[in-house]
Amino acid sequence: MPPLPTPPFHPLPSIHNLRSIGTHPTSHPSLRTRSTYVYRSASPSTLTPTDLHTLSSTLHITHVFDLRSAPEIAALLPLPPFPATPAIQRIWVPVFAAQDYSPERIAVRYKEYASGRVEGFVRAYADILAEGKESFRRVLKWVREGEGVGLVHCTAGKDRYVGVDSRDDGFWRMGWRAVVTEADACRTGVLVMLLLGLVGVTDEEIAAEYALTAQGLEAWKPEARERLKARGMPEEGIEGMMSSRPGNALMKGSADYMLATLEMVRQRYGGVEGYVRDVLGFGDEDVETIRRNLVEEALERTL
Q: Looking at beta carbons, which pairs linking 71-78 to residues 24 or more positions away fall under 8 Å?
């Protein structure tokens, strides 16, 4: 497996897909997104003390925004949501309420992802935008205040079992159970879309950033295979989840899904700024402050 490009990635042994959302060109020719301000990752629950120290002392992360639901966090036990440290404040901002993780709701959402069709992902991401407004508002308020350095994350690889009807062509034909995996490219990717879109990063650049998750999660695959095998998942199901072949939406993170989602945001909200103003409730001064805090001079080399 080739090494991850640095930047944007910051490879650490105990956390996958850790990367900055900085250095992207914006609509202003002399400005780019700040290189050491907002990071994204998979679940940080297994962070070692050494890697936790790196987050606080090397990357200077001060705030961690956890987008996971209560059932997801409960399923981690005995692992903590985030290792306790006085240097970093964990802020819980769940996108979905607990009732949205009933087996019925999980199954519906999984069908959207597993279809591999662009329209399925767009519907699922529209759901995230509708349900996640309080979460996203909280993160953007933090950006507006301009204090510290942030890490945003959801699950990326935490598996949950849900019974499904094996006659349903939208699922792997595994008989009595399927594994539902919501990759980092879901809730975190939608939030990053809002941050980048608000400062005028192009659709193509946002989609390319989103697609990096497939690289970032590559090292997680062997661990995931063993976990799923230990839990009795058939080999064909494991292969279906882990394969990068066309049609496997869960591990792929296709740029096409994000491009179509951005088009949906334009049609439904008038663009990212329309969503931030009309749904999240930020005014002119707020938007300009958020934009100012997300960018830096393009000639600066801070990484």
A: 71/98, 71/101, 71/160, 72/101, 72/155, 72/158, 72/160, 75/158, 75/160, 76/43, 76/45, 76/158
- Cα separation, 141 vs 286, in Å, equals 9
d(Cα 154, Cα 201) in Å, to the nearest integer?
Answer: 23
What sign has the CA pseudo-torsion 121, 126, 130, 132? positive
Q: Where are the alpha helices (DSSP H) in 132-220?
A: 133-145, 187-198, 203-211, 213-216
Beta strands 295-297 and 31-33, pairing class:
antiparallel
pLDDT of the residue at 165: 36
Phi, psi of 301 (to 5 degrees): -120, 95
Q: How far apart are CA 239 and CA 96, in angstroms?
A: 29
Q: What percent of the chain shows pLDDT beyond 90?
A: 58
pLDDT digits (tens, 9 = 90+) for 55-114: 999 999 999 999 998 888 887 889 999 999 999 999 999 998 775 555 555 556 656 655
Q: Is the peptide bond before 86 cis (omega within 30 degrees of 0)?
A: no
Amino acid identity of 288? E
Q: Comparing C-alpha atoms, which of 109, 116, 115, 59 is closest to residue 87?
A: 59
